[in-house]
Design a protein that fits this description.
The protein is of the alpha/beta class. The protein contains 22 helices and 13 strands. The protein is globular and about 80 Å long.
């Protein structure tokens, strides 16, 4: 039986017909609603309020029935124990092992992977301590003042986001990121650097990723021109598993930090890919990041589903995506430190669950991954909130706020948080025709203007939101926040019956780019459709 034919799904379909006409104004006649639909994790300093969702007790029960029918507990046991749940690539999925603080072993193919993980962590600690304390020096004996991470995808988005989020705590060398193969990216970074005081981290599992190796070779050429070939060993380290390619590049393999096939790129910031984070804030704070994620792992594994934040987040997303036909959702951090958080989640979510084939190899007949987008508040309020408030689409929102910011300046934070609290309230309850009319009357508007303006002033409301409040933004709470979304994505993949841990859709365009590259250099010709062929011809004609 397929997912949509299951009795749990059919029950939700029937229930939706009732709930689609229910308004949050009516649901909030229950003055105890917040207490019923919120979860507080004291140990992590995190509050999750999902009361402003179009659900009642029956909705919650039916959604959790869907979770039970998906056999989530069995799949959770599998992912944490190292079973190869990435079935298309025959790999375990063990980013959780990278932050495993339990002291227990985790096995893959009979080998305790915690031994290698601890070894790499110890190597990272020594390296970052030496770098930050001035023991690791450049080729001319000067201390390293700038670190440049060269990677793309998971080798860039995760560590870049965390470095931005923890910028307040940064007390090490300046950390830069280069990801785009567009030469402008590395050009703009290199012109800020002194080769004598710069270190490059080349992050590529295979050491063959086109964008990363193009940028790495440009950086290598720049350094060698300034300091000579022998300087490479002092100014380059590698995050990879390919010793042969690393050595061929000229990097001492003793300065290679390993990670493993059971770590997917978009889940890799907890591994050696997090090296630039430790360079920026120190290894102790990097470990705090891991600890926060581990404590969220414990919550996810042990909390009953009724009180399990990732589970609740997952089923709410399915409720809107599959029953209300909401095509996208927004993540709106009310913290400038988290301004790259949504961009990071875009890969985590859309690369994971943007799939059409289920675990039986069949095409699904229901919507899977949603489109995820957003900007930090309050910037987004002056951009796209108009569409969320009064547009024709339902766009569920996650609002993320910080109670105590790292630094208070005047009343900035109170003004920021007043918007954080106001926007979900406005989205939920809106403004009725009567309220809009009264407001216009109170402003002294004429009867003619009242008649004309009232329809434009009405806010229908009933726009669903989650509010996530962190007591503080620390490495630990950030780790918990990231892991919370990771587990949400996992739960949705299990319910949708897709493999959340492969990404074959990334491959085709890259292969075609390799076919086209020699044509742009006018080294060979290939046959394309008339549009692509004409575009290439135009490029070759106009380029200088």
């Amino acid at each position: 039986m397929g997912l949509v034919e299951s009795k749990e799904w059919q029950s939700l379909e029937t229930h939706y017909k009732k709930m689609k006409s229910v308004h949050l104004r009516d649901l909030f006649k229950d003055n105890d609603r917040f207490n019923k639909y919120s979860i507080r994790l004291e140990k992590l300093g995190l509050l999750f309020d999902y009361s402003k969702n179009i659900i009642d007790e029956e909705t919650k029960k039916l959604l959790l029935d869907l979770v039970k029918a998906s056999d989530l507990q069995t799949w959770t046991d599998k992912i944490f124990s190292g079973e190869k749940i990435n079935w298309t690539e025959k790999r375990a999925v063990l980013h959780s092992a990278l932050r495993n603080m339990s002291g227990k072993s985790v096995f893959v193919d009979g080998k305790d992977v915690m031994i290698d993980i601890k070894h790499v962590l110890a190597k990272m600690e020594k390296f970052t301590d030496d770098l930050r304390n001035g023991k690791w020096l450049g080729a001319t004996g000067k201390q390293i003042k700038a670190v440049v991470n060269i990677g793309i995808g998971g080798s860039d988005l995760g560590p870049r986001m965390v470095c931005e989020a923890l910028k307040y705590y940064a007390d090490g060398p300046a950390v830069y990121f280069v990801s785009n193969v567009d030469g402008a990216d590395i050009y703009e970074v290199l012109k800020k650097l002194d080769p004598e005081t710069s270190l490059f981290i080349v992050a590529s599992k295979t050491f063959t990723t086109q964008e990363t190796m193009t940028n790495a070779n440009t950086a290598r050429k720049w350094l060698v021109e300034k300091l000579g070939e022998n300087a490479i060993k002092n100014h380059f380290v590698a995050l990879s598993t390919n010793k042969e390619k690393v050595a061929e590049f000229g990097i001492d393999t003793n300065n290679m930090f390993e990670f493993w096939n059971f770590v997917g790129g978009r889940y890799s910031l907890w591994s050696a890919i997090g090296l630039p984070i430790a360079c920026a804030v120190g290894f102790d704070k990097f470990k705090e990041l891991l600890t926060g994620a581990y404590e969220m792992d414990v919550h996810f594994k042990t909390a009953p589903i009724e009180q399990n934040i990732p589970v609740i987040m997952a089923v709410l997303g399915i409720w809107y995506n599959n029953f209300f036909n909401a095509q996208s959702y927004t993540v709106l951090p009310y913290s400038q430190y988290l301004h790259r958080f949504t961009a990071f989640l875009q890969q985590s979510d859309m690369e994971s669950n943007g799939k059409t084939i289920n675990r039986n190899g069949e095409k699904v007949n229901y919507q899977t991954g949603q489109v995820l987008w957003g900007e930090p508040g309050t910037n987004g309020q002056h951009s796209f909130y108009q569409l969320i408030h009064q547009g024709t689409k339902m766009i569920p929102c996650d609002f993320i706020g910080i109670v105590n910011p790292p630094k208070r300046i005047g009343d900035h934070h109170e003004k920021l948080l007043s918007n954080f609290f106001a926007q979900p309230e406005a989205l939920a309850f809106g403004l009725t025709k009567e309220q809009a009319t009264e407001a216009l009357k109170a402003s002294g508007a004429s009867e003619e203007d009242i008649k004309m303006l009232t329809p434009h002033k009405i806010f229908e409301g009933n726009k669903p939101t989650n509010s996530i409040l962190l007591d503080e933004l620390t490495p630990k709470t950030l780790g918990a926040l990231i892991a919370m979304y990771e587990h949400k994505i996992f739960v949705q993949g299990i319910i949708w019956q897709v493999n959340s841990y492969d990404q074959w859709g990334v491959e085709l365009g890259k292969k075609l780019a390799n076919v086209i590259l020699p044509e742009l250099k006018q080294e060979k010709e290939n046959i394309h459709d008339c549009s692509t062929a004409s575009l290439i011809k135009y490029y070759n004609k106009v380029k200088k």
